[in-house]
Amino acid sequence: MSQIGINIKKLRKVKGLSQQAFADLFNLTRGNISSYEELRAEPKIEVVLHIAKYFCIPVSELLEKQLTVNEILNFGDHFEEALKIDQNGGLNAIPFIGREYFQEPKAGDGLSTLPKIYFPIYHKQQLLAVENSSLIPNPSSFPFEEHTILFLESVEVEILHTLDQSYGFYCKGEDLFFGQYVVNGTEIELVLNAWKSVVFDAEHKSGFWKLFGKFERII
């Protein structure tokens, strides 16, 4: 029995997408997504291929096994060649904050000045890649290992309702930290610990990011 309907629902939930938002990504209708998730219909093969490519998941796994949350967020070691910064190979160029960021003078204060890594991720939001290291503060409950590369999506109005308890990243000048979002009514905070947090401000949203996925870097 195909697992595609179950996996579409889990993908949508993990990524914080409504049925309509998921449908819009693949030129479908909300009714299409509802029928897949309720196992009343299955998508055409071209739709399956599009979903697999978009979320970087092998087609066989999307069809044949029930994906775990970790499998959805973890891009896997088979993309290690994507970490070569000096060649594109048709992959998406993503601004990258690695250990070298702290060892060199800053040429500016924006994504355009960052080096790029090339990775098979395609997303309508701006993406940022950050190497988890002891140089960047993070919460005591942070579940990611040293050297893991975390992919983050820019925080836009459309995803504010998905932020509560999600991990995120704040980056403004020299102030960088990982935290966890806490939503209280219309106030949103990215919390590092009991002593440090930043209140989300839509006018300065460029400094706020939400976890999109992770890549276990081979070292």
Unreliable residue runs:
77-88
Order of helices and strands: HHHHHHEEEEEEEEE
User: Tell me about the biggest sheet?
Assistant: 9 strands, mixed
* CATH fold-level topology of the largest domain: Umud Fragment, subunit A
Domain HTH cro/C1-type: 8-62
Keywords: DNA-binding
InterPro entries: Cro/C1-type_HTH, Lambda_DNA-bd_dom_sf
Protein name: Helix-turn-helix domain-containing protein
Describe the structure.
It comes from Sphingobacterium tabacisoli. Pfam families: HTH_19. Keywords: DNA-binding. With about 220 residues, the protein is α+β, with helices and mostly antiparallel strands. The chain folds into two domains: about 5-75, lambda repressor-like DNA-binding domains (434 Repressor (Amino-terminal Domain), Orthogonal Bundle), CATH 1.10.260; about 75-215, Umud Fragment, subunit A (Ribbon), CATH 2.10.109. The protein is built from six helices and nine strands. It has helices at about 5-15, 20-25, 30-35, 45-55, 60-65, 70-75, and strands at about 90-95, 115-120, 125-130, 150-155, 165-170, 175-185, 185-190, 195-200, 210-215. A nine-stranded mixed beta sheet has the order 2-1-3-4-9-5-6-7-8, with no helix packed on it. A hairpin with a 2-residue loop joins β5 and β6 (about 175-185). α1 (about 5-15) packs across α3 (about 30-35) and α2 crosses α3. The radius of gyration is 18 Å and the shape is globular. The chain starts with a helix and ends with a strand. The relative contact order is 0.13.
